[in-house]
Design brief:
Elements lengths: L3 E4 L6 H15 L4 E2 L1 H4 L6 H11 L2 E6 L21 H11 L3 E7 L23 E3 L4 H12 L55
Parallel strand pairs: 1-2, 1-3, 3-4, 4-5
Amino acid sequence: MAGVFINYRTGDGAVAAVLLDEELKDVFGPENVFRDRRTTPPGAHFPPELWRHLESCGVLLVLIGPNWLSLCDADGRRRIDVPGDYVHDEIHRALMWRKTVIPVLIDSAELPSKDQLPADIAELTERQFMQLRVPYAHLDLPVITDALRSHVPVRRTEPQPAPPAGGAPQPGSHSTYNDCAVSNGSGNATVNQGRDAQSGGRQ
């Protein structure tokens, strides 16, 4: 089954990515949601791990904040234009593999125009977008979640037997999740500092 992959830019959409990840994994299960800082375990070979998860997902959420296009590297180049930029490459591969790609505009961000993007990801501008206003996340996150229900398997909880008369839960009761091609990683929801592309992390 297909999961959802969260694409974001460190320094622009990391906070929104955590909010979205927390909401989605509660609904669909953590094994159905990929966010690199939570899902990739320490010591994992980052690039092949990243592409494996992207290939097995069904939906790519592209988080676009107000500075998504303008953030530059140390040489003054826009990060989206730098060879090996993970944000660019994830979008390019998802479009090439015909995944469902949904731009998610963060706060006051606007969807870029075609001439503002590298040609190989310009198709992103033709995809219907959604919005996530961080101060109003309690309103916007349920809308995004509902839109994903037709693409991502919903977390399933087994019916639990009624507790005995004393009110104590019966031993052995537990929950399970649907199987999914996107496997769970470390489970650590802490946001770590971004690393540059040469060290194997995201910018």
